[in-house]
């Protein structure tokens, strides 16, 4: 069986002028993740990422700890769900029917916890309605692209390979739900709990794929204890 590691990017820079960059903690998380994989004897034959800066930098930092020289393919189909686009277009629609969401929008989304609550409400609306009238990417298009990207990796890499895909929480949640045969309405439960730099393992043979484990960050806890660092974060 060949192996795919789905690795979420390190912590991004919430609240900064440019969110799409690793925070100092995110940089350290990526470094420690690479050190863990090296200690575990994981040799990546290939690495893939979306084209978001936080995804590419996480990939680069992990691969550097594995000795470098790992072929890195950038594929925009591994980009994150377009949360900002959805919040802009759909949050007012959701808020018109949900006073709690309306209250969060009224006071602003400076808190990452408040932002996550809005993301949840908007995501669940997005996957259960036809949102094409709002001029945004549909759930059907997004999920199909993620599925196609995974299948293309499996086909192009072939059997006996170990592959790292460096992506984001929404994409990992979508792929895991697809592997388990679940629909969009059941996807968010995998989205919210995904830790920064957590590792999800898939096994594949041909076009068949199965889930081995999901959202493991125990190695960050272990390495954090070794180095006196707090490495665990959701956002």
UniProtKB/TrEMBL annotation:
Keywords: Hydrolase. Gene3D superfamilies: Phosphoglycerate mutase-like. InterPro entries: His_Pase_superF_clade-1, His_PPase_superfam, Mito_Ser/Thr_phosphatase. GO terms for molecular function: hydrolase activity. SUPFAM superfamilies: Phosphoglycerate mutase-like (SSF53254). PANTHER family: PHOSPHOGLYCERATE MUTASE-RELATED, SERINE_THREONINE-PROTEIN PHOSPHATASE PGAM5, MITOCHONDRIAL. This is Histidine phosphatase family protein. It comes from Pseudohalioglobus lutimaris.
């Amino acid at each position: 069986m060949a192996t795919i590691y789905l690795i979420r990017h390190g912590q991004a820079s919430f609240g900064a002028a440019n969110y799409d960059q690793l925070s100092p903690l995110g940089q350290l998380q990526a470094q420690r993740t690479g050190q863990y994989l090296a200690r575990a004897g994981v040799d990546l034959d290939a690495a893939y990422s979306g084209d978001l800066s936080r995804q590419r930098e996480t990939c680069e930092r992990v691969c550097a700890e594995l000795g470098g020289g790992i072929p890195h393919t950038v594929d925009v189909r591994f980009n994150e769900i377009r949360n900002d686009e959805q919040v802009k277009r759909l949050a007012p629609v959701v808020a018109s029917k949900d006073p709690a969401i309306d209250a969060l929008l009224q006071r602003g989304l400076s808190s990452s916890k408040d932002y996550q609550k809005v993301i949840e409400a908007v995501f669940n609306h997005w996957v259960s309605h036809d949102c094409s009238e709002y001029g945004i990417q549909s759930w059907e298009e997004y999920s199909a692209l993620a599925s196609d990207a995974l299948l293309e990796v499996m086909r192009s890499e072939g059997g006996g390979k170990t592959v790292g895909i460096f992506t984001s929480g929404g994409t990992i949640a979508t792929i895991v739900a697809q592997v388990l045969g679940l629909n969009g309405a059941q996807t968010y439960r995998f989205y919210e709990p995904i830790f920064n730099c957590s590792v999800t393992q898939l096994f594949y043979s041909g076009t068949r794929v199965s889930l081995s484990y999901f959202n493991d960050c125990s190695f960050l806890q272990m390495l954090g204890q070794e180095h006196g660092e707090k490495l665990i974060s959701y956002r």
